[in-house]
Amino acid sequence: MVPEREDNIYGNSGEALQIHVSFVIPVYNNASSLLPLTDRITQAVNRTGHTFSIIFVDDGSCDGSWETIGRLAQHGRVQGFRLARNNGQHSAVLFGLFQSRAPVTIVMDADLQDRPEAIEILIKNYLNTGDDVIFAGRIGSYQSPFRMWTSNVYRRLLLAKLTGLPRGAGMYFLITRTACDKILALRMTRRPMVIGMIAAAGLTCSSYPCARQNRQHGKSGYTSLKRMRSAVNMLHCALFLKDGKKPSTVNYLDSIRVSECTSH
């Protein structure tokens, strides 16, 4: 069954109402960071005066992440889905976006490199601009010099030039319900890439600089080879869909199987 959606965030006077923000967080072996992440999200959203819920999508973890999600879900604001196998970060995010019912959703990583304190910046700029997608542009030296260099090349030469997205576009962003429905309606012929789908959907996007932390929990699952493959797949996704070539009739969400979910 398709989740019921909420869209209206403005009252009759045109002033923003208290809005409900849903967080979609893909999880892969992040057991040690989930509790502090949830605490910091709670503190950040409470400062805005809005309400929130969290959707954790466990993408095949084997470190106790699912058990931690189950404990967090006892507090009511957290819902968890455990996928039957590892589908990849982008598929996990898209599955979470499908489950979200909120007028706006924030996507972020679970490892605390994406600072929850930037949530206030995303919400404020969304209410000021009304853009479809607001990215938290990553700044700071949060990884090795070589990885920083390759990231800059990717963002300057590939991302901005070929897709038209802001240089700060990444997997920490706020997206509206309408925009979310547009990217979920796209059909893919290969593994989906969220950033490429945002580019292909022709959405209004902006980016605001937000400091990123060094990794404090676990280690990155993205090797240099995986990063290169991810960049190629993202560009293929953006350019392929934008050109409207050979649209697939297959919905990639149909291939995702859930083995467990928490009550909500």
TrEMBL record:
<dbReference type="GO" id="GO:0009103">
    <property type="term" value="P:lipopolysaccharide biosynthetic process"/>
</dbReference>
<keyword id="KW-0448">Lipopolysaccharide biosynthesis</keyword>
<keyword id="KW-0808">Transferase</keyword>
<keyword id="KW-0328">Glycosyltransferase</keyword>
<dbReference type="GO" id="GO:0016757">
    <property type="term" value="F:glycosyltransferase activity"/>
</dbReference>
<dbReference type="GO" id="GO:0005886">
    <property type="term" value="C:plasma membrane"/>
</dbReference>
<dbReference type="InterPro" id="IPR050256">
    <property type="entry name" value="Glycosyltransferase_2"/>
</dbReference>
<keyword id="KW-1003">Cell membrane</keyword>
<dbReference type="InterPro" id="IPR029044">
    <property type="entry name" value="Nucleotide-diphossugar_trans"/>
</dbReference>
<feature type="domain" description="Glycosyltransferase 2-like">
    <location>
        <begin position="22"/>
        <end position="182"/>
    </location>
</feature>
<keyword id="KW-0812">Transmembrane</keyword>
<keyword id="KW-1133">Transmembrane helix</keyword>
<dbReference type="InterPro" id="IPR001173">
    <property type="entry name" value="Glyco_trans_2-like"/>
</dbReference>
<dbReference type="Pfam" id="PF00535">
    <property type="entry name" value="Glycos_transf_2"/>
</dbReference>
<protein>
    <submittedName>
        <fullName>Glycosyl transferase family 2</fullName>
    </submittedName>
</protein>
<keyword id="KW-0472">Membrane</keyword>
